[in-house]
Amino acid sequence: DSYKNIKSLWLESNGIRKIEGLDNLPKLRMIYLHQNSIKVMENLNHLTNLVTINLSHNMIEKIEGLTGLVNLKNLDL
Fold first, then answer.
1. What is the full DSSP assignment across 16-71?
2. What is the dihedral of CA 55, 20, 31, 34, to 10 degrees?
3. 6-10, 31-35, 62-66, 72-76: which range is least confident on average?
4. Cα 28 from Cα 26, distance rounded (Å)
């Protein structure tokens, strides 16, 4: 259960196509998903502690679920 305390997650350059599997990371503040193959920004709405999201150098076509990200200060697309 120590993963529930993760505050920063670096997943750049991993060929990721979909944002998923982050349901049990309630304390996540920063996520770095740059240089992947993501087309839709999704499945982040429940991560209300997120301050920074880096999705640059992807293939973003659609952005969803920003309303729950009340602490978001940095969004890099």
1. --S----TT-TT--EEE--SS---EE-S-TT-TT--EEE--SS---EE---TT-TT
2. -30
3. 62-66
4. 6
The Cα–Cα gap between 23 and 70 comes to 17
| 30 bridge partner residues | 8, 52
List pLDDT tens digits, range 14-57. 999 999 999 999 999 999 999 999 999 999 999 999 999 999 99
Quote the pLDDT of residue 65. 86
Query: Full-prediction pTM beyond 0.90?
Result: yes
For residue 73, which phi and psi values (nearest 5 degrees)? -120, -30
With 0-12 / 13-18 / 19 or more C-beta atoms within 10 angstroms meaning exposed / middle / buried, residue 22 is middle
How many residues in the chain?
A: 77
